[in-house]
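S.,

As promised, the PRP run. Input:
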Amino acid sequence: MERTRYLTFALGKGRLARKTLELFEKAGVTCEEMKDKDTRKLIFTNEELGYRFFLSKGPDVPTYVEYGAADIGIVGEDTILEENRKIYEVLDLGFGKCSMCVCGPKEAGELLRHQELIRVATKYPRIAKDYFYNKKHQTVEIIKLNGSIELAPIVGLSEVIVDIVETGSTLRENGLTVLEEICPLSARMTVNPVSMKMEHARITQLIHALKEALGKE
Ligand code: PRP
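Predicted complex:
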């Protein structure tokens, strides 16, 4: 008998991957190999289900899915919007809830109201550009950073930042505040468009099982 082709899952490393595996377990999708915290393996399989899983940096997940190296990707909506890849977004997984916001010291609110030419530091230049240019029609200078974005207004690199706010404690502890909310975010399941056609039955079955585990069906 011909062996079933593996369905390959790319998971964003860290908290999102842990939450994803919890949800998958509830839906009957298990991967014992992945539970070993000390493993240096990069790829894990469940032979019975014909599933294969790997962990990658969040921003790489949509890339693997677009090229078909992964059939399915689990990643935050922030990364999906920023990477803008040709992939289908099929399910809101409900966890990893946070917001994309414009933040800064309270006084910077005035600069936003008066459409001033300001500097915006962010890990998300595409989202920031879309918000300021297309929604607010405000010309700004966008400065790409790779982390600890809250530092930028404190040390004078920029007037405001565009970043994720979850609990708000990083902002609070650094004397910053939310000035404008851009959009709410959460973890999403994404699918390669060709896989969606070729593996339609298996993928829809999985979506149903996940919806059920989420209490959506
Ligand atoms: C994210 C984000 C904020 C923080 C928000 O950073 O960039 O800094 O979490 O969370 P909070 O509202 O609960 O404080 P992350 O920890 O991913 O690291 P980074 O600064 O390197 O991007």
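The chain has a mean pLDDT of 94. Residues 123, 147-150, 163-170 surround PRP (CB under 6 Å).

- D.
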